[in-house]
Automatic annotation (TrEMBL):
This is Helix-turn-helix transcriptional regulator. The lineage of its organism: Bacteria, Bacillati, Actinomycetota, Coriobacteriia, Eggerthellales. Keywords: DNA-binding, Transcription, Transcription regulation. It comes from the Bacteria. Residues 21-75 form the HTH cro/C1-type domain. PANTHER family: HTH-TYPE TRANSCRIPTIONAL REGULATOR, HTH-TYPE TRANSCRIPTIONAL REGULATOR SUTR.
């Protein structure tokens, strides 16, 4: 029997990642409007990520880490 994905677990991880992204943005004193272009995304996409409503690709994660001038490891710290 095939194991079904645990969507609640994925949502929890998305929420924790979103909170991490928000913390990184706020540590830099940036609004969503100022931060989104720096990360190569729209403000609404960033807002959805911060709230855990959106999933994100590895390529976008890498671009986000670069935009924050941190490593991927640092991006996932505490997530």
């Amino acid at each position: 029997m095939k194991k079904q994905p645990n969507h609640a677990h994925n949502t929890e991880k998305q929420i924790r990642l979103g909170l991490r992204i928000k913390d990184l943005r706020e540590e830099r004193g940036l609004s969503q409007y100022a931060c989104a272009p720096r990360l190569g995304m729209s403000r609404t996409y960033l807002a959805d990520l911060e709230c855990g409503r959106r999933n994100i690709s590895f390529a976008r994660l890498a671009a986000m880490a670069e935009g924050f001038d941190i490593t991927l490891e640092e991006l996932f710290k505490g997530v």
